[in-house]
Each structure stands twice: as C-alpha cells, then as structure tokens.
Amino acid sequence: MSIEKIQIITKENISVQQLFEAPLKFTSMNGETGWNNLIVDGNIHRPQLALAGFTELFTSQRVQMLGNTEMYYLKSLDLEARMTAFINIADRNVPCLILTNNHELQPELLNIANEHNISVLQTPFETTKAIHMVSEYLDDQFAQQGVIHGSFVDVYGVGVLFVGRSGIGKSEIALDLVERGHRLVADDVVMLTKKRDTVLMGTGTSLVKHFMEIRGLGIIDVRQMFGIRAIRFQKRLEILVELEDWDPTKEYDRTGLDESPRSVMGVEVSAVKLPIFPGKNITVISEVIALNYLLRTYGYNAPKEFANKLREEIERRAKNTSSAVDQRIVSYFQSDQE
Amino acid sequence: MIETDITVVNRAGVHTRPAAMIVKLAAQFKSDIYLTGDNQLRINAKSIIGVMTLAAAQGTILHLTVSGEDETAAVDKLSELFASGFGEHL
C-alpha cells in the first residue's frame, strides 16, 4: 500500500466506562450511573465559574474536574446554596465529574448527580497531575489512527517500517532481523497513532499480536518461537523503508546527501527507497540504515563529512602545486609486514 | 476503482480456511485489493494476517475496494467466492 493511501480512523467519542477503565486509579462513587454517557471532547474543564453561577460559556460537554477550589467552595455554602450551585453544572448534560485528591461529594449532591445520570469518579491524584494524566489519556483516545500494510521492527532501538507490494518479502526481512536479535513490533497490519502532531507510534492489533505469515510456511508465532526478547508492543516510527523491484531505468540515491523525508499521516518521517534484487542482503542494509540514522541523530552525518573532506582536499591541492601527494591512509609502511 | 459491499454468508464466518481462499484468489490479480471490516480497519486482501484481522462473522458486510487493470474480474471473482460461502454451511 502506498503511504498516501493510509486510511485514517478517528474516534468520535468514548464512553465514561472506557475512561473509568483507564489505568488512572479511578473509583466510582455512584456505581455504574452514567457509564454510557459519551465523552466527545478531549479537553478538560474546571467548572469554577459555573458553580458560582456564570454558566454562559460553560463547556458542559467536557469532562468536569473538581479539585480543592471547587470542593472547598461547595463546602463553604449552606445546604440550599450548595444544591443550587451544583445544579448549575448538573443540569447541562455533563458526561462525568472527576473528584481529585479523593474528595467526596456530599450525599445531597451525589443524589443530584444520580438524578441527572452523571457518573462521579474519584481519583487519589492531586488536580494538576490528574488533569495532565486524564488529558493525556483523552488525547490518545481521540488521536488519529491509521492502518498500514507493512512490517514494523525495532532495529538497534530505531523504529523501522518496511512497506512495499504484497509478496516482496517484508515479513522475511522482519524475521531475519528478529533472528539477528532485533525486535518485532507488528507484521502485516501495523496500527499507527499520531501523538501531538509530531510523533507516530506504531503497534500491532490485539488479535494478531506477533503472529506472522511466511510464504510457503504459513503462520508462525514469533513470541513463542524466539521468546520475549524478540518482540515489543509499541515503537515510535522513525524510518520508512520502501522496498521496490529493481528498475534499471530508475535513478537511486547514491550519496545520501539529500534526505527525503516522507509525510506519513502529516508527520515527517525519514525515508529510504530500497531496490531489491537477488543476492542483496536487505537485513544487513536495514541494520546499516538504522545505525546511520543513529549517527545522524547523534550529530554525525557520513555523506556530509565525506563531502567536507573532499572539499578540503580539493582546496589543498589547488594551493599546493607539488605533484607527489600520497593517496594512502598510511604514508609509510615501516617494517611492518602484517 | 470499483467499490462494493459484500456479505459474509457462511455460518462460521471468515475463519482461517476462508481467509486463505480469499488471499489466494486476491493474489492472482494485479490490482490493489482492500477490504474494510466493521471495526473500520482497511486491510490488504493479499495478506492472510490482514484478512484474519477482520474477524468477520456471519452477516458482516465488508467493503471491497479494488483498483487496477484487472479490477472488474477481481471484483466478480471475489463476490462469487463470498456468495458461495467458501463451500461451507450457509
């Protein structure tokens, strides 16, 4: 599948029950009340002004988070005023309330929440931390997801995704890399999730996990066969390797000076086009691609270094007219015969 | 490009054996062939792992997208295969 044709899936909503089941240490104060309410907005709101009576711009469709300020404000009111203040927010189709610092809702307020079918969740975390954690969770849930046909492997800690036509040997390369101690993330069906517009995280599907099809053999389970060190569940996508049949009429990159990143779901990813022909060891080349990427990340760019050396040499020769310039790395082999 | 909906009619759904039949048939065509399941995943019909990912039960409607030089033949043959219930109990 070509990179332009990635189908993008975005969730429109998640249920309160899904949020409750997130690993954020929630306890429910009113059982399963309001668990089917839908959260449609990834943002969080602290309903301070709404409690105080200003409800005009109240973003009630958001998850409402009640921390110290809200809870002590409610506590400071007498019973009737407290119920009026709480109805201000309860009356507007709020999906759920989150109480931070293990705050508890007064029984009369909990009744109101039940009447309005609003889930009330409690978390031991303090408000700032809870906001951070819940919005990270919601961001992930509402993130763009894409499905791509390819093999995704962690090579020396670099996430390398192999794509190319069906039958070109993506799975075989992944298997070969696993044999050499690298780790398989997903084969055939790779799910990509966009994080904060700049990062793509890849993982397999829950059904397939680390099963893989090898032509002529059938289906194998990489985790069972090679053990836990041969797999991982998620990896950031860093390099896209596009495998294609060797085409003698086509020009391939010879210097590596032009880095040509590809846009995958709107995120720039380093890309390499790799022509395939018999006798070419793609596995070793893949390792070199990953190492080269690491070198570049850590500030060493081999093509640039070579180009600089060449430029210096040309300048030196232009100045120095003496003809006898030694081309060897070692200028004089003493008596070393090794 | 041709797009059409096809229904899984056999009782057992698209389990391993039918998946293999679909992939074998799809691989005979040059066209790009994709199937979209009710879990919204669009997968390459030439990948057995992909087709099995659909986990399509009886009654599931799959969306078939084919594009390429032999797209008409591919759609016909694949529709036929699904309609036949993969030679299994309907």
CATH class category of chain B: Alpha Beta
Ends of chain B: how far apart? 30 Å
Low-confidence stretches of chain B: none
Distance between the termini of chain A: 53 Å
For the largest interface, the chains and their residue counts are: A-B, 17 and 17 residues
Cα radius of gyration of chain B in angstroms: 12 Å
Q: How much helical structure, as a percent, in the residues of chain B?
A: 25-40%
User: How many β-strand stretches of chain A?
Assistant: 18
The rough form of chain A would be described as elongated
SS field, number of helical segments of chain B: 3
Counted up, domains of chain B total 1
CATH class of the largest domain in chain A: Alpha Beta
Tell me the count of domains of chain A: 3
Instruction: Classify the oligomer.
Output: heterodimer
Instruction: Show unreliable segments of chain A.
Output: none
The sequence of SSEs of chain B as H and E is: EHEEHEH
CATH architecture descriptor of the largest domain in chain A = 3-Layer(aba) Sandwich
The CATH topology of chain B comes to: Histidine-containing Protein, Chain: A
Task: Describe this structure in a few short sentences.
Chain A has 10 helices and 18 strands. Chain A has 338 residues and is α/β, with parallel strands linked by helices.
Describe, in plain words, how this protein is organized in 3D.
The complex is a heterodimer of chains A (338) and B (90). Chain A has helices spanning 16-21, 48-51, 68-76, 79-90, 107-115, 127-141, 170-179, 222-226, 282-297, 302-319, and strands spanning 7-9, 14-15, 27-28, 38-39, 44-45, 63-66, 96-99, 119-122, 145-155, 158-163, 183-195, 199-203, 211-214, 218-221, 234-236, 239-245, 262-264, 267-276. Chain A is an alpha/beta fold. Chain A folds into three domains: 11-141, HprK N-terminal domain-like (Udp-n-acetylmuramoylalanyl-d-glutamate--2,6- Diaminopimelate Ligase, Chain: A, domain 1), CATH 3.40.1390.20; 144-297, P-loop containing nucleotide triphosphate hydrolases (Rossmann fold); 303-338. In chain A, a hairpin with a 2-residue loop joins strand 9 and strand 10. The longest helix of chain A has 18 residues, at 302-319. Chain A starts with 6 loop residues before the first strand and ends in a 19-residue tail after the last helix. The model of chain A has no long low-confidence stretch (mean pLDDT 88). Chain B has 90 residues and is an alpha+beta fold. Chain B has one domain (2-87): Histidine-containing Protein, Chain: A. In chain B, 34% of the residues lie in helices and 23% in strands. Chain B contains three helices and four strands. Chain B has helices at 16-27, 48-53, 71-83; strands at residues 2-7, 32-36, 42-44, 61-67. Chain B has a four-stranded antiparallel sheet with strand order 1-4-2-3. The mean pLDDT of chain B is 90. Chain A binds chain B through residues 1, 7, 9, 147, 149, 166-167, 187-189, 205, 207-208, 211-213, 219, and chain B through 27, 32, 34, 36, 40-44, 46-50, 52-53, 55.
